[in-house]
Each structure stands twice: as C-alpha cells, then as structure tokens.
Model the fold of this input.
Amino acid sequence: MSVEIITKEDLQAFKIELLADLRMIIREVPEKPKEWMKSAELKKLLKVSHGTLQNLRISGQLKFSKIGGTYYYRYHDLLKLLENGMPKFL
Done:
C-alpha cells in the first residue's frame, strides 16, 4: 500500500481545474426561460402599471392563472401578445 502526500499546491491546482470545468459546464447548459411569471416580473419587463396589466387580463388579451391572491402569466402567452402587436394603451 503506497501513501501519497497531498500538498496545498496540489489542492490549489485541483481547485483551479475544477472551477474551470464547472464554468465550461455552465456555459454549455442553455438558459431556459421561465414558464410562468408573476405580475411584478411582467410589469417590470413590459414597463407597465398595475392598471394596464389588469386591463390586459379583463380584455382577454393576456391569459392568466390566479393562485391565492397572485396572478401568474405564461411566458408563451406573453410572446403571443407581443407577436400580435401591443395593445393601443401600452
């Protein structure tokens, strides 16, 4: 049975190599957009007020789901809204 001595320099080199591998793996994973967005995220993204978002819901231009007191919007439905052209009041 042989004994190997690991030095601080060996550990430092391993750390650098491991971090480089992790960075490469992270770059390879494509970033998937969120499937659902909350009202606050959507308002920030579209730069609209709460009332405008409410008008989109009421008019049926933007589909939503309400869980508890929170409205959720599908990313897919937002893309449809943008593809069809933004409503006049935006």
Q: What stands out?
A: The longest strand covers residues 70-74. The longest helix spans residues 8-28. The chain is about 50% helix and 10% strand. Residues 36-83 form one domain.
